[in-house]
Structures are given as structure tokens and as C-alpha cells.
Amino acid sequence: MDGKHTDSASPSRVVRYWRRAVPLGVAAAVAAGIGGGVDLVHRFQEDDDKPAKASAKQASDQQDTSGPRYVVGVRRTGTALVVREVKTGRDVGPPVAAPQGQRFRHIAAGGEGTYVVSAVTDRRKVVFNRLRLDSDGTPKDLAAIPNVTVDGTATAWSDLAVDRNGDRLASVTYRGQTGRVDVVSLATGERRSWTTRLPGRITNLSWAGSTLSFVWNPVRTVNGRPTVVSHQLRRLDTAGPAGDLRVSKAVMKLPKGSVSAILSHDGRTVVVGVGQGSELTLQTYSSATGQPAQVLWKRQQDATPARISPDATGHHLLAVGDDGRLYARGGAVPAQDFSDAAW
Hints:
By secondary structure, this protein is mainly β. It has one domain: TolB, C-terminal domain (Neuraminidase), CATH 2.120.10.30. About 5% of the residues lie in helices and about 50% in strands. It has helices spanning about 15-20, 45-60, and strands spanning about 70-75, 80-85, 95, 105-110, 115-120, 125-135, 140-150, 160, 170-175, 180-185, 190-195, 200-210, 210-220, 225-230, 230-235, 245, 250-255, 260-265, 270-275, 280-285, 290-300, 305-310, 315-320, 325, 330-335, 340. The protein has a five-stranded mixed β-sheet with strand order 8-9-10-11-16, with no helix packed on it. It is globular and about 45 Å long. The two termini are about 30 Å apart. The model is unreliable at about 5-65 (pLDDT under 50). InterPro entries: 6-blade_b-propeller_TolB-like (IPR011042), Quino_amine_DH_bsu (IPR011044).
């Protein structure tokens, strides 16, 4: 894939983790069959809950006064979804159990107070569910999205994004070290795919109209280990022909201290998460020139944003830190028990 705006990137803790990482294999198999109903689990797994309970008071002292009131997280075990209040860090209602034969993997805002959740099965398929919340944040129901499936393996390096209209989703799956991007209609299940033969990680999916952006993290073998060597934001015209992911275009090389970036909904601005020293920053850049524009917010925090998650409107941004917390403009939410989160 071609390059643009080639500022050098230095390793953060996330990058160092990537350099040690060996490509993940097939997700752990679970019981066959997909249950049609939804179980609300009234108990929390002890190992998941301890960090959240210990940090709830801290979150209440760092309140986010704007944006969504709740985040929804995927338990690291993949067995449940948890709704967490942004203002207090407390959980809302009972966790929602994964349907029989599934383990949750990723989550994205689905519009109108809903969330789309991907799940892996033992049949090398990724399926999707829609979670609805009541006005007070209590989980209302979880329902399978019919006829919407993706063949392949969803790993910790996969990703998920739903477009602003809630009509389509984009999903990343892998075969070994090579990834595939699928765009699927949520109404019909119609699917288009783009693949690459180049080893790398595809992260930070985001939509700007029919344009899908992603961070391309090429992998090379260094001293016998798969190593991420750079981080580049690219854009893919999903209205164009499917096929090779090389048809995507470079937007910018991410600056030093950054591994995450998304396009704004109008496609004119890039939002980049930067972690340097003890400061975490969300900074905008021009998508046309790659030049810095505006600092959205800063926090005195030794963390690197591994992912930036917009809400359904695109006006509020959640930075998923590599320190087990979720950062918004006005506060932080404890999330050591989450493997993924959206608001």
C-alpha cells in the first residue's frame, strides 16, 4: 500500500505489545448452535468486577458533562455485555449474556440508542446482534440480526463499525496474518469484501458517508517475531469495486506517539489519539494536507489511545486507553474488565 505524510512513529506501550504479539488463531470454540433467546445474567464474574468496583469512585470524581450517558462494554471473557454509567462508573442493570454457542467480540454504536455486537461461533463464522437500552440505560433486549454473517475468524485485532444511518456495518476478520474487510447491509445481508495479501493489522474502522477509513499497521518479521512497523490512516471507497484492499488511499502517516485515528463524518478532518510522556491528547488534522489543526482535549495521563470510538452522532469521542480506562472530554470510565466498548 502506498504512503503519504511520512512522519516517523515511535513505539508506545500498545506498539510494544504489538511487536511481541503472535497472530491469534481461531477464537475458542463454544457449544454448537445459536440460541434465539436472551438471558440476563444477574451475577458478575468476580475477576472481571474487582477492577471496576475499585475504580467507580474515581470515575465519579471525573465526570463527563457532555455526550452519551452510558458506555457498553464487552467482557474480556466474551460471555456478557455490561452497561456502565459515564458519570459514576457504576454498572446499570444486569449484564447481558451471550447467546448459546456465541462469544461476544466487538461492539459499535448502532444509532437510536442501540448497539451492534459481533460474536464468534464454533463454525468459523461471525454473527451479529443488536442490543437496545431503555431510557435509563437498563438493557432492554438483545436480538440476532438475521441473514448478516461473515465467514472467518474475528480476533482481538478485528474491528467493527456501523455507518451513521445504521444501514451497513464494516467488519475485519483474519486468515493468519492477513486481514479482510467486509461491508454488509444490515437490512439484506448483502456483502462486499476487500482482502490483502500483505501481513498487517486493520484497526480503528470509521465511516464518512460511503468512505470507510482504517488504520493500516503493516507487520514484518524482525528477529523471528511479527512486528508492527508503522501506522497509517487509509480510506476506502465502499461504493467502488470490491477486491484488493490496495484500492484504498493513504490519508496520513500517524504522528509520533499515535496508533489510533478516525475520519470525521464529513471526511474533512482526521482525529488522532496521541500518548506522549504523561499526556493523552485528541488532536485534529486536515485530511487534505495532514497538517495539525485543533486540540480537542488533553489529559495528564500516562496512557495511549488504542482506539477512538465515536458515538452515533459523531460529535462525541471516546478514547480507549491502553491502561484499562475509557477517556472522554470530561472524565474517565473504569474498563479493565472490557475488551471493547462503545457509547
